[in-house]
Amino acid sequence: MKITWLGHAGFRIEISDQVLLIDPWLAGNPSFPEGREDEAIDGTTAIFLTHGHGDHASSTLPISAKTGASIHCIHELSIILGQEGGNVTGFGKGGTITMGEGDAEVTVTMVNAVHSSSIDYKEGAPVYAGQPAGFMISGEGHTIYVSGDTDIMADMEWFADLHEPDIGILSAGGHFTMDMKRAAYVCQKFFDFKTVIPCHWGTFPLLAQSCDELEFALKEGVVKVPEVLVPIEI
User: What torsion, rounded to 10 degrees, do the Cα atoms 231, 146, 70, 123 define?
Assistant: First the structure.
């Protein structure tokens, strides 16, 4: 398995025979290097969106059109993107998308997140885009919890109990989501992650500019501070 940060909250996950993009904001992302879009999206089989904000969803339709990848997101957002010509499947919290078969099967289950969601990157007032979400991605004997933009939730206790994720991709930049201290608390209180990858940091001055506080709080080697377009192999 390879997990590659695309800057901000975007990830490329190569798992079994699938290449999944999570919130792939490339155009206009100050953390993503210009001219490397093709490298980031090569071979993409599916795109999953946690919510509709521009720093997560605004590059989705062009990427889908270029790669042929299907888009998966909450129902209301799927309607909006579908009306714009996207190849979209909407689903809801507790729902699961299954890709591949047998030993190569990958499942993605939508779970709750505490945030907001709107199409806020077009002219006019923001348009409601359903509720925000996170994902549990299972394959190759691992389960990845993608928190999406969220604060701490009591739900995380049963997330850990039911899904038993060993990898956490956690929003941790503060201001709009959990900060590093709160993300560390989540890891210590609820989960038994073997690998934690922080995201939604460093992009703007409002956000945390380092992951030191998270690294210091957890066991040595658990936190993998990502570098853009440098794969983390699990």
Answer: -100
What pLDDT shows up at residue 103? Answer: 87
pTM of the model: 0.98
Give 3-state DSSP helix, strand, coil % of the chain, rounded to 5.
25, 30, 50
The beta strands (E) that lie in 6-45 are given as 11-15, 18-22
The string of pLDDT tens digits covering residues 51-62 is 999 999 999 999
Cβ-contact 48, 108 below 8 angstroms: yes
Identify the CA nearest to 59 among candidates 12, 113, 93.
Answer: 12
Nearest Cα to 135, choosing from 105, 169, 158, 100? 169
> Backbone phi, then psi, for 135, in 5-degree steps?
-140, 145
162-216 confidence digits (pLDDT tens)? 999 999 999 999 999 999 999 999 999 999 999 999 999 999 999 999 999 999 9
Q: What is the pLDDT confidence band of residue 152, given thresholds at 50, 70 and 90?
A: very high
DSSP for 102-120, written as a single string: GGG-EEEEEEE--S--EE-
Strand partners, 197: 169
- Amino acid (one-letter) located at 121: Y
CATH fourth-level superfamily of 2-233: Ribonuclease Z/Hydroxyacylglutathione hydrolase-like (3.60.15.10)
Q: Chain-centre distance of CA 196, in angstroms? A: 13
Report the SS3 class of residue 21: strand
Token output for 157: 């206790």
Q: For residue 167, what are its two tokens?
A: 């990898």
